[in-house]
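ok trying this again, last paste got cut off
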Amino acid sequence: MRTHRISLLGAVVVVVAAVSGGCGGYGGSKAKTASTATASSGGTVIKTVTVHETEFKLTPNTISLAKPGTYVFKGVNDGTVTHALAVEGNGVDQDSADISAGSSGTLKVTLPKAGNYEIYCPVDGHKNQGMKGKITVGGSTGSGTGGAGTTETTGTSTGRKGY
């Protein structure tokens, strides 16, 4: 039931962007820090950040985001075993569903305030084997860690807890 509700939200975002003439960050080749797509829905910024997962690392493992808001983290499992994504910090503690090898999944997270958050793979000790990274929100201190330069939008999200 929850997946349908989030899918509907994604459809509404697409419709709002289409009705408003497509503005809101969907076009052009401008690279955004650590994000691959931007949409606007009722004042809430939604950005998609793509994170590639392999045995045993996250790429990128340092993500800089300009401001607090709602983000969709797309985990792309380029490895040979099951992975997932988790984000923790500043009162946030959310996990995606398992992502099988060769697949991708999403985790929609609201990062409520500026500061540091941890991103990692919560599967079977993968975090301790190096599948972890840092998300910095606000106060940009780096050169940016954008994805592969592709633009994607998503309207689905899965979660293990709290959804």
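PB: full thing came through this time. Strands lie at 37-41, 44-54, 57-59, 62-65, 69-77, 86-89, 92-95, 104-111, 115-120, 132-137.
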